[in-house]
What does this fold into?
Amino acid sequence: MKLKVKAKASIGIQKPIEEVFEAIVNPEIMTQYFISKSSGRMEQGKEIYWKFPEFDGNYPVVVKELISNQYISFVWDPDSLVEIKLEKRSDRDTLIRVSEEGHSLDQNGVKWVVEQSEGWANFLACMKAWLEYGIHLRKGAFDYMIK
It folds into this structure.
């Protein structure tokens, strides 16, 4: 049995759990803080495509499980599974935890887990900035990566 590495990030967002959940599954909201385009809403069993402003191409996302206002899992890398868990802390406070697991505990896996942890922390910070303050934190942040 090979050991696997797990990328993790979490943050509290001062919004109701329903609003945080909707910000993840609804592409019209997600384009305000994370992606530039989506082929559709996240729904269990559905394959959608995300486009990022700083990368070429479309990235397939296969939604594995979706429990309203609680849990989302999807695959966008055939070697890993993303899990997003939401926890209601109060009527206007939601804890969101993201993890992605699947790569082997080796040099490439360690590089991958560091990059994914950075990416998920950025995703959460951008979501928090948008939902709480209407700030598009990602805008211009990765222009140096565009060809």
Q: What stands out?
A: The chain has one domain: 4-145. Residues 4-145 form a domain with the Alpha-D-Glucose-1,6-Bisphosphate; Chain A, domain 4 fold (CATH 3.30.530.20). The mean pLDDT is 94. Helices lie at 17-25, 27-30, 107-133.
